[in-house]
Each structure stands twice: as structure tokens, then as C-alpha cells.
Amino acid sequence: MTLSNINLGYACINEELKAPLKKGRRIIRDKITTNRSMILRTFNERGLSYVSELALKNCLDLEKIIQWNEDHEIKFFRMSSDLFPWATKYNFEDLPDWQAIQESLQRSGELATKYSQRLTFHPGPFNKLASPKKEIVANTIDELNYHGKVMDVMGLSRTPYNKINIHVGGAYGDRMEAMKRFVLNFKYLDKSVQTRLTVENDDIESLFSVSNLMFLASEVGTPIVFDYHHHKFRPDKETEFGALSMAATTWYGGVTPVVHYSQSRATEQNDPNIKPNAHSDSYWEPFEDYGYTLDVMLECKSKEKGLFKMRQLLKERSSKEEQEFQIGDIVKNNFYLLSEIFLVTGINYGKRTCNLALLSSKQTTPGQIVADFHELTKLS
User: Fold this and answer.
1) Same-domain check for residues 79 and 132
2) CA 87, CA 121: separation in Å to the nearest integer?
3) For residue 83, with 0-12 CB atoms within 10 Å meaning exposed, 13-18 middle and 19 or more buried, which class applies?
4) pTM of full prediction above 0.70
5) The domain containing residue 56 runs over which residues?
6) pLDDT: which is higher, 28 or 278
């Protein structure tokens, strides 16, 4: 594992920025968030003028979050689906502030391109392209098309680099029939969605594993986003490495695969009453990339704080591995020198030379070499 092949990201909300910044009782910076919304009753009562006001604030704050991410060397961010409250109930062009909103979105897209930041969407679980109910499918198509339009306005690529990720949504008693409906309904999506759509493995036995989703990858070309945490609960006989490798083959055009990563909140809180598939607040173990170059969307609840924790864990592991490699190289490359040192210092030369010769010929990992060498130095 090298830090250079891993790009960490977080989702939707910036914990540091979401609350107003105060100095004493005085607010010196308003909250920065892209999740301003309203309930349906408020939408019906206050209409498009209020929608437009919130949407503009959300879009302006997206610019600030992109800049904050750059200042903190974060190159991967999942945008909120709530940029436009009740987005499928009106045309963007009818919003009173549409011109300003459009310009703001374009600036965000230009910033992301300038900084080489990857921006993505993950519409909610109510999007069910495989549903047997026409009304649900129609609503899903509208919702996904909204996300595609936002990305188009931003000038983002029509590729899975700027992905719109969903779950199949349900098996409805027959996985294959559900996926066939998904394929059928896929053709009704706008090109802005078809070219960006990805699918993700589930954490429920009755739903979809990576191996199940390979059907969609072959039929409509949707890359698979491998979710490490979900895989633990729906492995379908695949190892973690095997499932990741399978998903990685579905990404095309030189686009780096995206994976999702979380750990169990039940383990974190040491509470068996918490569902084991619930996402943790933060992290305590480093992520395993198995040698792949990956963009890792961290789905812990502490958002960018969890990203900083994972960054620390990865650096600590990388530093430890580097030290082990260095010591391992010293042991292997300086076998004869070490033998001479033992001889000159009058240490039990024969016994150590025999063991060092065995050590130098072993096909082993640097960590094992270090452990073996430490064990050898205890011999008298």
C-alpha cells in the first residue's frame, strides 16, 4: 500500500463548516451547507421564490466547500442531492434566481476541474429503477435526470468519473427479473445519466452482490462501486479481494474505480444492540487497497473528520511498512557483513551464521524478516 494510489473522499456534509462560526456571542461566519431544504407543506405554501433562495445559497456554499477541500488536500467529494429542494416538481429555468444559480454551478465545476477534484452524486434509496411499479420507475427517472442536469450545468464529464451511483433498489423475489427491468428502464434515462450511472452492492442477503451486478455491467455498461462494509454481509462466496477485483474490471476509459468504506458502529461502540451493518462514527483500522489505485468514499458519520483519521491511520501503516522494508533489506543485503560482526565480537558464530543463512534464503515478507531477525538476536 502506498498513499499515492489512494484518494480519500467524504460525503455531502462538512462537519466543521455546517455550524455558524462564533466569536463570543457574535456570529462571524454563517453556516456553510448544501443541504438546505423544506417539507412539502412549506414548498406548497412558499413556492418557487423560497426554493430559489435556498438553492442559490446551497450552490454558493458548494463553491466554498470545494475551496475548503482544496485547502485541506481533499480531492474527492460527494455532492448533496438536496442542492435543489423538491427538484423534480419544477423547471430550473422557472426559478427567479436561475441565472445566478447557473453561474454558481459553473464556477463550482470550473473549480473542481482546476483542482482535479472528483465530484459525484449518490441519490437516495427511494430510487428504484428495477421496481415493477411504473410510478416508482417514473419518479426514479425524473430524480436521476435531475442529477444529470446539475452535472451538465456544472460542465462535469459525462463519464463515471463524475458518477451518479445507485442501488438496484430491490429484488422483488427474483433478482434476475429485477435486473432485466433495470436494463429495460435504463434506456429511458437521459444521456446525462446513462453515461454516469454506477451501481453498488448491497448488505442484505436477498439483494445484490458484486457477482450479481456483473450482469448489469455486461448489459448496460454500469461500473460497479464496491462497498467493503456491505460485502461483509452479502459476500456471495467471494472474498473481499475477489469481489473488489471483479468490480474493478467494470471501470473503463481509464477512470479510477470508486469504492465505499465504513466500519461497524456496533464494534466501535462495543454494543451488540446496534445493527452490525450500521456505519461507524470514525475509524480505528486502516483501509486495505490490495494494491489497487482507488478513489475511496468514506461513509463514516464524522465526515471529513473521519477522513483525517483514516489519513493518519494510512500514514502510520505506510511508515511502519517502510521501516520493515528497510530493515528487511539490511538483513538480506548485509548477510555476510553481519556474519563478520558476529565473528569479530566473539558471539556464537556458527549458530548465528546457520540461522542467518536460512533467513537470507527464505521467501518471506519484510515484517516476518524483522521478526525472525529479532528472534535470532536473542540466541546465545
Assistant:
1) yes
2) 14
3) buried
4) yes
5) 3-317
6) 278
